[in-house]
Specification:
The protein is α+β, with helices and mostly antiparallel strands. Helices cover 62% and strands 12% of the residues. It is built from 4 helices and 2 strands; from the N terminus they run ββαααα.
């Protein structure tokens, strides 16, 4: 925490996650949004409605712990794909 004072950790069913202090946002969520905004930290801050300094703190943490954050992003993308597939199958079954 000394190296990353704006990062806190939360325990959950999937394990320990790095979060931005005072926001309820996980670092992986912020980094995924930065990527969606072509690396534009200021646009990400506007979109997420958080201070730019917090986005920069997430980026700094990501630089130090890239593989950890990439695993969270990957897991989220996989879960989203599985959920979408289940929803699509349900819709197809209902329309019969």
């Amino acid at each position: 925490m000394d190296e990353h004072p704006l990062i806190r950790f939360a325990e959950g069913p999937a394990g320990r996650r790095a979060r931005l202090a005072g926001t309820g946002k996980d670092v992986w969520e912020v980094i995924a949004t930065v990527r969606d905004n072509s690396g534009d930290a200021a646009e990400t801050a506007r979109y997420l409605e958080i201070p730019l300094g917090l986005v920069q703190a997430a980026i700094t943490y990501y630089g130090a712990y890239q593989s950890e954050i990439d695993q969270w992003i990957e897991a989220n993308e996989q879960e989203a794909a599985e959920t979408h597939a289940a929803w699509t199958a349900g819709q197809a079954a209902v329309k019969r």
